[in-house]
Amino acid sequence: MHAYRSHTCADLTAANVGDTIRLSGWVHRRRDHGGVIFIDLRDHYGITQVLCDPDSPVFNEVEKLRSEWCIRIDGTVKARDPELVNPKLPTGEIEVFIRDMEVLGGIDGELPLQVFGDQEYPEETRLSYRYLDLRREKMQANMALRSDVVASIRRRMWDQNFREYQTPIITASSPEGARDFLVPSRLHPGKFYALPQAPQQFKQLIMVSGFDKYFQIAPCFRDEDPRADRSPTDFYQLDMEMSFVEQQDVFDTIQPVLTGIFEEFGGGRTVDQEWPQISYRDAALWYGTDKPDLRNPIKMQDVSEHFRGSGFAIFAKLLEQDGTQVRAIPAPKGGSRKFCDRMDKFARAEGLPGMGYIFWRDQGEGMEAAGPLAKNIGPERTEAIRQQLGLEVGDAAFFLGGKPSSFEKVAGKARTVIWEETPKAPEDENWRDRFAFAWIVDFPIYEKDEETGKIDFEHNPFSMPQGGMDALNGDPLDVLGYQYDLACNGYELVSGAIRNHKPEIMFKAFEIAGYGKDEVEKRFGGMVNAFQYGAPPHGGCAAGIDRIVMLLADQDNIREVIMFPMNQRAEDLMMSAPSEPLNEQLRELSLRVVQED
């Protein structure tokens, strides 16, 4: 017999009754029933109930066992009495009488967290003892899901004639939207490598090298501020690139891969088959974000014309300024003063002076528009707003005004709150059981810093401008790129672009953002040089593995689907990282740490 097990803790069935077997695992739960000790023995695959009474030669040793001790047992499989069968366990028809036992790994002292049960622990405790946290059923399922998703992605990419190639982990620093992690060079004192924010330049060079289709499950490293849906140090993405393609070709390639993944692992939730393409500007107008949750059908609208020159002085005066708007958030079934006051309070809590509203109520012979705004702008303008928004009795609308950048984010949050907290039609009751995708397209390439007036890249600097060189000769803020994101249920899952593969267009694009030719050649010399040797048109995208698994696992925090994540302060509490280097290490690297006062 094998040294540790003849079966896993999920294998045994009624067909094994009478067999002598060997199991190894952890003591999941221990119960003493009047001298008979029952143990739920757990391994990665499942749980088997084992028991021991005073007739067993190892009864005294079994009595000493406690939760999470790692043990091996030899025993005989017995059928449970019919009334004691546990239908919730695959092994619920049998139990194992212990004949021999060996402690493979004991525990000194108390457990810092229990594996059995649903008790919640502070994240600091969970991450400090992650190896215990990972033994819990939910975490075992999340990590198995992640592994299965990655395996399925690989199969689906190979089925579309992609090949997987690996790109360097140590490379040159490049500005790609986040801070680099720098790595000092021992052989070249005073110089630094960087961990790649993404394989961006390398995957483009793979296309220049004549490999038509590339993909990789790629680690990416960015020194970023943490969020619930973002790791502060590293993450994994499905990275892909293709030659001789247009934007729609990329969409047509990645859509069946992701559709298949969400159908395979989504637990029966609906997966949208139609993925609308929404311009960046429309997404901001309608949803207040470039990663909209389309399960929520509410669309905001520009209602500025109804307030221009109206009796509501606050909005009327705002609209006399350039670049200002008034937007309405329709609220079907939100037409009560109590709810309207609550949303106004929500806006104040978010840092705005408030949020205007109108609600429509039944007055016997017809509907009446109520609220301060309705009184100020009059019945004709109020009715025009109602008709534009398609609202009826029992509905409401909320209004925000000013420069969109000052209120858009709050408006997007308000849209979410309104949908979640107002009554739904019967067909919308199960709205959460759906994966709703949308391509966000036509991103502006440039943005202006309102304080300095400086033009800089708004998105990926390697994207081809729509219209090529001609587009770069006009107003930079009007230039759109072949850039795109894929949103799902309020998260950005994919980002990509058709690349700028022509050196003359690239130099011009960077010049507009304040980067001279010499600086571009210094920062991106390898890629710029390669583009002078017959670069093909190419494009691709990258899909965030961690976020995909987070959605499939129905988790709100990305750390729940990462094996060994950092905490919110970018610390590894288990391995004590970051840590101070030894003086010998610093000397080897010709470095000295200077403490700021």
Instruction: Give helix % range.
Output: 25-40%
**What's the oligomerization state?**
single chain
Low-confidence stretches are: none
Total E-strand runs? 24
Produce a short descriptive summary.
The termini are far apart.
Overview of the structural elements:
It is built from 17 helices and 24 strands. Helix 4 packs antiparallel against helix 6 (247-265) and helix 4 crosses helix 16. The protein starts with 19 loop residues before the first strand and ends in a 9-residue tail after the last helix. The mean pLDDT is 94. With 597 residues, it is of the alpha+beta class. An eight-stranded mixed beta sheet has the order 6-9-10-24-23-22-19-12, with helices on both faces. Strands 1-2-3-5-4 form a five-stranded mixed beta barrel. Helix content is 29%, strand content 24%.
Using brief descriptors, characterize the structure shown:
597 residues, alpha+beta, eight-stranded mixed beta sheet, five-stranded mixed barrel, 24% strand, globular
Topology readout:
Elements: E1 20-33, E2 36-42, E3 47-52, H1 59-63, E4 70-79, E5 94-105, H2 123-128, H3 130-133, H4 137-159, E6 163-164, E7 181-184, E8 192-195, H5 200-208, E9 213-221, E10 234-243, H6 247-265, E11 270-271, E12 277-279, H7 280-287, E13 301-302, H8 304-307, H9 313-318, E14 325-331, H10 337-349, E15 356-362, E16 367-370, H11 372-389, E17 396-402, H12 404-421, E18 434-435, E19 437-441, E20 446-448, E21 455-457, H13 468-471, E22 483-488, E23 491-498, H14 503-512, H15 517-530, E24 538-544, H16 545-552, H17 583-588
Parallel strand pairs: 3-5, 6-9, 11-18, 12-19
Antiparallel strand pairs: 1-2, 1-4, 2-3, 4-5, 7-8, 9-10, 10-24, 13-14, 14-17, 15-16, 15-17, 19-22, 20-21, 22-23, 23-24
